[in-house]
Structures are given as C-alpha cells and as structure tokens.
Amino acid sequence: MDQFPQCETLLLEKQGPALFVTINRPDVRNAMSLQMVAELSTVFSQVENDASIRAVVIRGADGHFCAGGDIKDMAGARGQKSAEGEEDPFYRLNRAFGQMIQQVNESSKVVIAVTEGAVMGGGFGLACVSDVAIAGPTAKFGMPETTLGVIPAQIAPFVVERIGLTQARRLALLGLRVDADEACRLGIVHQVAESEVEIDELLGHAVERVRQCAPNATAQTKALLHRVGHESMSGLLDSAAAKFAEAIRSDEGSEGTLAFMQKRPASWAASE
Q1: Low-confidence ranges of the chain (pLDDT < 70)
Q2: What letters, b where the CB count within 10 A reaches 16 and e where it falls short, cover 9-46?
Q3: Which terms does the UniProt entry file under GO BP (predicted)?
Q4: Which of 120, 134, 185, 261 could form a disulfide linkage to 68, CB 3.0–4.6 angstroms apart?
Q5: How many CB atoms within 10 Å of residue 82?
Q6: Residue 11, CA distances (Å) to 39, 79, 134 in order
Q7: Domain covering 10-210 in this structure, CATH number
Q8: pLDDT digit string (tens) for 168-213?
Q9: Kind plus residue range of the DSSP H or E element containing 234
C-alpha cells in the first residue's frame, strides 16, 4: 500500500508484512461509528490488492478494543425520516456494519485481533471474524444488545459460526459478559496473555508465522475453509483437488518444494 487512506477514526502503520489498524476513538471506548465502518471497509478494500500486506492486525487505542455501536449514530438515525421508497435509516446503519464485517471475514489476508478492555456488540463481532484472536487480561466480551431492547442482527450469524449455536444462544439471549479465560474456552479467542508484554510476544509470533506461509496458498486455504458447510462435500473436494493441482504447479508451489529440498527458507519467508 503506497498511500494509506486518510482516516479520522483509525491509525494505520505498516510493520513488515502486517498492516496495524488501531481503532482510535478512546473517548468513547472506541465505539464503532458509521465513519469508522466506512474507513475499515476502505482499508480492507485497499489491502486486498496489496501483495506486500499479508496480515491485518486490529486493536484498539488506550486499553479498549471496541465497545460496540456508537449511540450518537443511533440517535441520529432516530431523528431521520425516510421518504417514501427509501430504506429505513436504522436498516442502512445496521446493514452497513454487516457488509463491513462480512468483508473482514472474507478478506484474503490473515486478520489478527488483539482484544483488550471492552469487546462488546460490534467489537465482539469483529473479534469473531478474525483468523487469530489474542486476548489481554482486561478483555471483557459480550453481546449486550438484548439488554438494550435491540438485537445483535449483523453479528449473530458470525458468532454462531465462531462458537456454535448452543453457546451463542446463552451469550445472546442472556446478554452475558465473559472474561478472557472463558472467551478462550468458548473459542472466541485462541490465546490469553497475562500482560502487555505477553500480548506483544504472542502477536509477534503470529505475524512471524504469517511470514513463513506462502501468501497465495494462505489466501486459497482461507477461501476453502469458508466454503465448508455451504456446499456438498464431494463437490467441494473436487474443487479443492483442482486448486491443489494449480497450487503445486504455481511459482509458490515450485519455490516451496525447492526450498524444502534445499533445506532453506522459502523466498516469502525472508525478512523485509
């Protein structure tokens, strides 16, 4: 990415193969505004075509990941009137978030979430579409929507995909909040750090593992995993075999095989 997009709600910094995206609205515990949704969508659109970026790390400023939707946006939508034939403003607001979170979910890049403090509502949904999730000791996860008289409309399907229907029911229907250890047991996050230093160590290791894996093979693998359960198994395996044949004949496949035989790191694993 030669030119980062101009963002008011996000801080962007490229470090090696990773783009670090810091949600930067600390005065509202990094609550997700419509502007933030649009900026995240723009960032993920741009990185999709940037071969130098192989991972996107999302975290929040000043000790919180994201406290959910911005109440000001909801109040603004309540004050809008829909002209005849126009979409309801609440529908537009909610659906815009859903489109963004689906985009993050389907990104060809490895998405790493570093969760601390409040990880609520939309922030919880964002954590649930990450490929690797690390929790700090202060992290609290929850779906508080039902306690506010609304529903987790856009995040619920992703939560079910993440932890299964049984556990998603308990969290959503009771509006529960869980700590980092329980989030790890449920499968919301993969690792729990006991300190800021350990967060950095786990994050550094994850980014280094991304570097060791071939970019196109990683993207193709992620796409394959997303297809499981959405199409017939025999058809999926037929398609996967064709993708495997393409991969082994590709430049990456040739380089990976040669590097293994020569007992050296593959070209994509070299430090920048």
Answers
A1: 1-3, 75, 78-85, 272
A2: bbebeeebbbbbbbbbbeeebbbbbbebbebbbebbeb
A3: isoprenoid catabolic process
A4: 120
A5: 12
A6: 11, 31, 19
A7: 3.90.226.10
A8: 999 999 999 999 999 999 999 999 999 999 999 999 999 999 999 9
A9: helix 233-249
> DSSP letters of 43-107?
HHHHHHT-TT--EEEEEEGGG-SB-SB-HHHHHHHHH--PPTTSPPHHHHHHHHHHHHHHHHHH-
Residue-range domain boundaries for the chain:
10-210, 214-269
The three-class DSSP label of residue 266 is: coil
Given this chain, do its domains 10-210 and 214-269 carry the same CATH topology?
Answer: no
Q: For tokens 């996860």, name the residue.
A: 141
